[in-house]
Specification:
With 338 residues, the chain is an alpha/beta fold. It folds into 2 domains: 237 residues, Periplasmic binding protein-like II (D-Maltodextrin-Binding Protein, domain 2); 89 residues, Periplasmic binding protein-like II (D-Maltodextrin-Binding Protein, domain 2), CATH 3.40.190.10. Helix content is 43%, strand content 14%.
């Protein structure tokens, strides 16, 4: 596990240095007590779930709070921890189970600072012969990568049904666009993606089998390295404040939110973008507090999968102080006043 992690970290670091250089203040090395206000924010899939980030970029909210922030799409969930560990990404957005797995296999210390979506926010789309979730037993399910949000969502579904992994066949296809192609070509029977990526397959006659939103999870958690937080507390606090304001825009300004989905999520179809918005709007938190119980569950799942032992106390990885400050000083309430 550790050897594979080191290889992944090296690969992501090399990629980041080639593409855009080393961000100032990365890894907590900064001559200023407040640290650098420049950061790279890594996220792991195309889709409307990250509309908070898209809106922050499009509406200049990062700049409003003094951040020079760059969004970067990572190839898979497995790269999220590697990006954080190598300092090529300063804030990581993705399923906590994946980053928890990295913590268990290394000496890297992380802090989970915000949780804008506390459930599995994916849908399953498949052949029109699949008339219920029970009908997928024995079928091939297309997913992006091991440890991805889709992988974790399917595991939650299997546990809920009392099935084993042998009751379906997971087919890992590296990306969500590849999932769509595999479904269209008949290589899989169903796929698991976030709207609107899989939703657009309805144009080819595929149907929605189910969604996974009834399963609580630290699904879209924002994470930083502990030493980066220590040396760049001002920047991280600015990110959390920007994130909280952008969540309010998602709830308060449908047109702006939908426009960012169209711009960034891989579809220029207004109807699909509106579908995605209506799916996510009830799921986005107004106060993105990290639920310690959900994080503890993520560590338990990661440990069980890797054959490791979960920490007895995972609360040290949670830092809700910045969200708590915004709540106590009335900032969050002010965002929702009419």
């Amino acid at each position: 596990m550790r050897a594979r992690l080191l290889l992944a970290v090296s690969a992501v670091a090399a990629l980041a240095l080639t593409a855009c250089g080393s961000p100032e203040g990365a890894g907590g090395s900064s001559s200023d007590d407040a640290g650098s206000m420049k950061m790279t924010i890594g996220y792991t899939a195309i889709g409307a779930a990250y509309d908070d980030l898209y809106v922050c970029e499009d509406q200049g909210i990062f700049e409003k709070y003094g951040l020079d922030a760059e969004l970067t799409l990572l190839n898979s969930s497995s790269q999220l921890f590697a990006g954080l560990a190598s300092n090529s990404v300063q804030v990581g957005a993705g399923v906590a189970k994946s980053t928890a797995s990295g913590v268990l296999g290394s000496d890297i210390d992380l802090r989970y600072i915000a949780l804008p979506i506390p459930v599995y926010y994916l849908e399953m789309w498949g052949k029109d012969t699949i008339t219920s979730p029970d009908a997928v037993k024995g079928m091939r399910i297309g997913l992006s990568s091991p440890g991805s949000l889709g992988d974790a969502s399917v595991d939650a579904f299997l546990a809920d049904k009392g099935w084993s992994e042998d009751d379906i066949t997971k087919v890992f296809l590296k990306s969500t666009p590849a999932e769509v192609t595999a479904l269209e070509q008949g290589a899989v029977d169903a796929i698991v993606t976030q709207p609107p990526t899989g939703t657009k397959t309805r144009e080819q006659g595929f149907v929605k089998v189910m969604d996974f939103t009834k399963y609580p999870a630290a699904a879209n958690a924002y994470t930083v390295k502990a030493d980066y937080l220590t040396s760049n507390e001002k920047a991280v606090a600015a990110f959390v404040k920007a994130e909280t304001e952008c969540l309010s825009i998602l709830h308060n300004d449908r047109d702006t939110a939908v426009a960012s989905i169209v711009k960034h999520s891989g579809t220029d179809d207004q109807e699909l973008a509106e579908y995605a918005y209506d799916f996510f709007e009830p799921l986005w938190a107004k106060t993105p507090t990290v639920d310690p119980d959900l994080l503890a569950e993520a560590f338990e799942q990661a440990a069980a999968e890797n054959g490791d032992k979960a920490p007895a106390d995972t609360s040290k990885y949670v830092d809700n102080s910045m969200v708590d400050d915004l709540q106590s000083d009335g900032f969050i309430d002010s965002l929702y006043q009419k």
